[in-house]
Amino acid sequence: MSLTRRETEVLGLLMQGHTNKKIAQRLNISDFTVRDHVSSLLAKHGVENRMMLIIVVSRMGKG
Length: 63
Known about the structure:
mainly alpha; Arc Repressor Mutant, subunit A; DNA binding
């Protein structure tokens, strides 16, 4: 599956346990933009929530 550079950055910070607000601050983007990236990541990985995303990505060896 192909992720954008920004999705990869957001995913990395999600894997570290950061909130959307903290991710937005770290990447200098809006909370809404982070939310959109997280939604895209959920859809691409076929999961419904952040916890499942973290589990799936960890099992894939990307975390």
